[in-house]
Amino acid sequence: MIRRILYYGSVILAGVAIGAGSVVALTSFSVVQGGIENGPWRTNALYGSADASPYLRTGVAIAGLFALRKEETVYYTASTDSDGDILDANCRYRLKGLPPDARWWSFTLYAADHFLVDNPDGIYSVAKTGALLGPDGGLEIVVSPDRQDGNWLPSTGAGPLFSITARLYHPSAGVYADLAGTPLPTIRKGDCL
Questions:
Q1: Ordered structural domains, the chain, with CATH
Q2: Which SS3 state, helix, strand or coil, does residue 172 take?
Q3: pLDDT tens, residue by residue, 59-90
């Protein structure tokens, strides 16, 4: 009788340990694990795909991407600058490059908790429909805690760390063909406050 109790007790404990381990793995899974690097930007070809693993689906749900079908949208996220340093909300950054090759796109700043950064200006993203382009057609976005002219994403209230997500809606076939080589803006660090 005692052997049976010990046996069933150990089976239950093993089940609880495996279950707890799975929960930890699912909830700590980064949406860019197993993904594709493109400079400071990261993506995963399986976002919005029926082939995505339960771990990737959980990571997408936790990070709040609400990923559309992969045939409709490509998501890139940067949590470092182009030199590989972690993005710091107390510093200024300049995103510079050509606008993404997509029917519509946006760049949105998120705090470390994956939520939009509450800011008094109510500015949460820079998008194709409102972005100011240079005379050469180039795109420049300044990310900083202090107000800037032009395309600006305020980092005030983001906490010490943040990320930027680029959403490319209905991108060109060239984007899908080369996720690692698609032209995306560089992210250069300026001064820190």
A1: 37-53+68-192 (2.60.120.600)
A2: coil
A3: 555 555 555 666 789 999 999 999 999 999 99
